[in-house]
TrEMBL record:
InterPro entries: Homeodomain-like_sf, HTH_TetR, Tet_transcr_reg_TetR-rel_C_sf, TetR_C. Residues 39-58 bind DNA. Transmembrane segments: none annotated. GO terms for molecular function: DNA binding. Residues 16-76 form the HTH tetR-type domain. SUPFAM superfamilies: Homeodomain-like, Tetracyclin repressor-like, C-terminal domain. Keywords: DNA-binding, Transcription, Transcription regulation. This is DNA-binding transcriptional regulator, AcrR family. It comes from the Bacteria.
Length: 212
């Protein structure tokens, strides 16, 4: 999970409407300001479309935001965790890559700091609790993926028997979320890289065997 342009133009949509460009503009605005603080007027201005065109192309603000999140999750910036888990031969190499890439991606000045799915739904109102739940469910689903990866590593003998995959996944999820927030607070790649390397020292080591 982590649509494309349509042929023709819908009623009320300008002839020059570029759906992907409009979605990119909305993504940046939500990423910078969060869901609650982003108004429809700001969205239509940033996207270069009229309110009627926004509704025709994307539905309401909630539907637009959900499409933004799904598109973000498919982008290199949003998909790096899943890519590392698929491509690295060991769990340790995957988690090391995730933390090190987070250290460079989250403070990258080419886009808003941090992770959109971590920061976009802070301080939402009761009326928008659905959005907070939507992002929470995505983050929890990602946590399950980390847990499953670590359980498999334990079954394969990479993690020692005393390791707790659930606690370890939670720990690294907390570190990743914290790195996102530190980036939003101004931390640079050097600081985040130091945090990543420190976090990796928590990787479970095999207990020494009995003396021979």
């Amino acid at each position: 999970m982590w649509g494309m342009g349509q042929a023709g133009t819908a009623r009320g949509r300008p002839r020059t409407f570029d759906r992907d460009a409009a979605l990119a503009a909305a993504t940046r605005l939500f990423w910078e300001r969060g869901y609650e603080a982003t108004s429809l007027n700001e969205l239509t201005e940033a996207m270069g479309i009229r309110p009627g065109s926004l509704y025709a192309a994307f539905g309401d603000k909630k539907a637009l935001f959900k499409e933004v999140v799904h598109a973000y999750a498919r982008s290199p910036v949003g998909a790096f965790i899943g890519v590392a888990l698929r491509e690295e031969p060991t769990a340790y190499q995957a988690f090391a890559r995730i933390l090190r890439e987070a250290a460079t991606i989250y403070p990258d000045p080419s886009h808003p700091a941090g992770c959109l799915t971590i920061s976009a739904a802070t301080n939402v109102t009761v009326q928008d609790a659905e959005i907070a739940a939507f992002l929470r469910d995505l983050r929890n689903a990602n946590l399950v993926v980390l847990q499953d990866h670590l359980r498999t590593a334990q079954q394969d003998g990479e993690l020692p028997p005393h390791a707790d995959p659930r606690a370890l996944a939670g720990y690294f999820a907390v570190v990743i979320q914290g790195m996102s927030q530190r980036a939003r607070d101004g931390a640079d790649a050097t600081e985040l890289a130091e945090i990543a390397e420190l976090a990796l020292t928590a990787w479970p080591k095999r207990e020494p065997g009995p003396p021979s």
